[in-house]
Amino acid sequence: MRLTIQRVTSARVTVGERVVGAIGSGLVVFVGISRTDGEAEAAAMAAKLLELRLFDGADGKGFDRSVRDVRGALLAVSQFTLYGDVRRGRRPSFDTAAPPAGAREVYDAFVRELRASGLSVETGEFQALMRVEVTNDGPVTILVDSDRTF
After folding, report:
1. What is each CA distance from 4 to 21, 59, 89, 101, 150, in whole angstroms?
2. What is the pLDDT of residue 149?
3. What pLDDT sits at residue 81?
4. Which terminal residue of the chain has fewer beta carbons within 10 Å of its beta carbon, N or C?
5. H helices within the chain, ranges in order?
6. From the candidates 4, 81, 123, 149, which is the catalytic residue?
7. Are 100 and 83 in contact (CB under 8 A)?
């Protein structure tokens, strides 16, 4: 499972002209699911995300508080292209990305884990062509890969 995490002051996802998810201050999380990922990876990655210290402390100390500490919002957006492999040729290969049915189950488990935190959680629309507008704060962007993290 791969996450691209951005600390934001605001973000929103639209499908066509319809806003399907929007948040103020918090984290946007682009979520890629591999063929080998399951609910265990979803739970571990959600726990990791909720505890990452990406926000300044009350005393101004950088990277001192988590999204849970600051009661920030979360916007989770499925993105199979995080598993695009461009080592050969010019067109990405998505062979290691989970097929839609399996990816949907793991993504849904990930979102359930986030919602269990009590924080405000919004999502994009699975398998839709989305436009994601992000106002990155910092900018702060972190990559987390379950194959390299745990």
Report:
1. 17, 27, 24, 22, 16
2. 64
3. 96
4. C
5. 39-51, 67-70, 100-115, 146-149
6. 81
7. no
Cβ–Cβ under 8 Å, residues 65 and 99: no
The fourth-level CATH superfamily of domain 2-145 is D-tyrosyl-tRNA(Tyr) deacylase (3.50.80.10)
Mean pLDDT across the chain, nearest whole number? 96
- Using a 10 angstrom Cβ sphere, with 0-12 exposed, 13-18 middle and 19 or more buried, the burial of residue 115 is middle
- For strand 73-78 and strand 26-32, is the pairing parallel, antiparallel, or unpaired? parallel
Provide mean pLDDT across the span 116-136: 97
Mean predicted confidence (pLDDT) in 125-146: 96
How would you classify the pairing of strands 65-66 and 18-23?
unpaired
Q: What is the DSSP letter of 124?
A: -
| Location of structure tokens 């292209």 | 81
CB atoms within 10 A of CB 81: 10
pLDDT > 70: what percent of the chain?
99
Token readout for 3 is 């996450």
Q: For residue 81, indicate whether it is catalytic.
A: yes
Please state whether beta strands 26-32 and 2-15 pair in parallel, antiparallel, or not at all (unpaired).
antiparallel
Pairwise CA distance, residues 136 & 26, whole Å: 10
